[in-house]
Design goal:
18 helices, YcjX family protein, 3-stranded antiparallel β-sheet, 463 residues, YcjX-like, alpha/beta, 7-stranded mixed β-sheet, binds guanosine-5'-diphosphate, Rossmann fold
Length: 463
């Protein structure tokens, strides 16, 4: 007991002096979390040297002296694999870093000179920056806490769009014959649960994002555990609650309902209690361009998933979250990532589209006085903005290298500045290839507006 308490107290004192900040990065799979955190650490380590961080005043004014990694305190959380990520980017040809799968952490110690010098003259100060990276999929489980098992089943059934259902065909075939009242057969439930997980994985591969339970997609060390062996029972939507409650404890229904509850209590809640509640600042990454590329059903799905995900930041007084825990996040950024996939004059539209997509959650947050900023960025810029002559006119273009090594020079299309309508989708005027990262030239990684993100997230602590 003593040691964690002592640790909490030191943490509290450090934070009281504004010397410690816990910054979390999240986003759905492939939204760019690993690239973002790699770049963030890289930029800060090169601050005061080669990093281009003009939008971060402390760096522009030469007050940010650098950052070094120090040992994290929570030894139970894996360390963010920064060295491996940099090694992948340094290969010939360069590779994108392998994505992280669960929660990871990295602690940096920043040295800076405050804006106004104290009476001691050239004092330097330290800021301990704890960085966390965790899957946005885990936040999709917050709404699950508001359900009991039967209402969760109904909520999942309501999601069945045509393209989405395809992925669950094998599960549907298996679950159809399952009698809720029959005695549970462990092996059969495991088998059906695996089909459900396969359905979720297939749907995710196809670009769907509104998928629950989140741990089924990223099970980490829970893989194969019975707590992950449940699924919704489609047949019980019309059943009377009293009838369901009267089913014997060994029945399929009661077994699945117990596992659902266990998942709520032992998987979802602890994440909020042990981690989420302790973050000071948060950035949510969104692969908006990827969704535009993938078509209307997936764009809709992303929109729903983000609305769900954003509930974790809506801790106004009446929210589910504030009834469960008291989070302390006091500043939030929402970023459309991979902006280097479009030409620079499209960037304001990308932000406008992000604002439109998140209009409701943003309004709620602003109403609850949570400072929030939307921006677009490229954590690791992999293209170069160019201009080309086209029919006698100069038009913007991008130059880069495709993943297979082919050189590219292209105009990827216009980003709609508001939510795309049918006309946009029928034109499908938007397509981009994936770029290979640019070869590392020593020094800092090329980026777009990482400095703006850093300024919003930590700038005030360096003044
Ligand atoms: P995660 O699953 O959220 O950790 O996502 P990653 O950081 O692994 O990013 C997924 C993929 O998106 C990467 O492998 C890259 O192909 C691409 N990506 C991420 N960030 C950028 C970026 O800034 N620019 C470009 N061009 N591609 C990016």
């Amino acid at each position: 007991m003593r040691q964690p308490l002592a640790r909490e107290i030191t943490d509290l004192i450090e934070r009281g002096r504004d010397r410690q900040l816990r910054l979390a990065v999240t986003g759905l799979s492939r939204s760019g979390k690993t690239a973002f955190l790699t770049s963030l650490v890289n930029q800060l380590r090169h601050a005061g040297l080669e990093a281009r961080l003009d939008l971060l005043p402390a760096a522009r004014q030469g007050r940010l002296l650098g950052a070094r990694r120090v040992n994290q305190q929570d030894l139970g959380v894996p360390r963010f694999p920064y060295d491996q990520a940099m090694a992948a980017l340094a290969e010939t040809p360069p590779r994108w870093p392998a994505p992280t799968r669960g929660i990871s952490e990295l602690r940096l110690e920043l040295r800076y000179r405050p804006e106004r010098r104290g009476w001691l003259g050239s004092e330097t100060r330290r800021l301990t920056l704890d960085l966390f990276d965790y899957p946005g999929e885990w936040l999709l489980d917050l709404p699950l806490l508001a359900h009991d098992y039967p209402s969760w089943c109904r909520s999942q059934q309501a999601l069945a769009g045509e393209q989405r259902r395809v992925h669950f065909a094998a599960w549907h075939a298996a679950v159809e014959d399952l009698d809720p009242a029959a005695e549970a057969d462990e092996a059969q439930l495991a088998e059906i649960a695996e089909r459900y997980a396969q359905g979720l994985r297939g749907a995710r591969e196809a670009g769907f994002a509104d998928l629950q339970p989140g741990r089924f997609l990223l099970p980490g060390d829970l893989s194969g555990a019975p707590v992950l062996q449940f699924f919704p029972l489609p047949g019980i939507a019309e059943a009377e609650p009293a009838e369901l409650a009267a089913l014997p404890p060994e029945s399929n229904y009661a077994t699945l309902a117990r596992r659902f509850q266990y998942y709520q209590q032992h998987i979802v809640r602890p994440f909020y209690r042990d981690h989420f509640r302790r973050f000071d600042r948060q950035i949510v990454l969104v692969d908006l361009l990827g969704a535009l590329n993938a078509g209307p059903e997936r764009f809709e799905d992303l929109s729903r998933a983000l609305a769900n995900l954003m509930q974790s930041f809506d801790y106004g007084r009446r929210s589910l979250l504030s009834r469960l825990f008291a989070p302390r996040i006091d500043r939030l950024a929402i970023a459309a990532t991979k902006a280097d996939h479009v030409t620079p004059e499209q960037h304001p539209r990308l932000v406008a589209l992000l604002e439109a997509l998140l209009a409701e959650p943003l309004q709620d947050l602003r109403f609850a006085s949570v400072p929030v900023r939307a921006l677009s960025l490229a954590a690791i810029r992999a293209s170069e903005a160019r201009e080309v002559e086209h029919r006698g006119q100069r038009t913007p273009a991008l130059r880069g290298t495709a993943l297979d090594g082919e050189p590219l020079l292209l105009f990827p299309g216009e980003v709609p500045g508001r939510l795309p309508d049918d006309a946009f989708w029928s034109r499908q005027g938007f397509a981009f290839p994936h770029f290979r990262p640019l070869p590392l030239e020593g020094g800092a990684l090329p980026h777009i507006r990482m400095d703006a993100a850093l300024d919003w997230l930590i700038g005030d602590k360096l003044s």
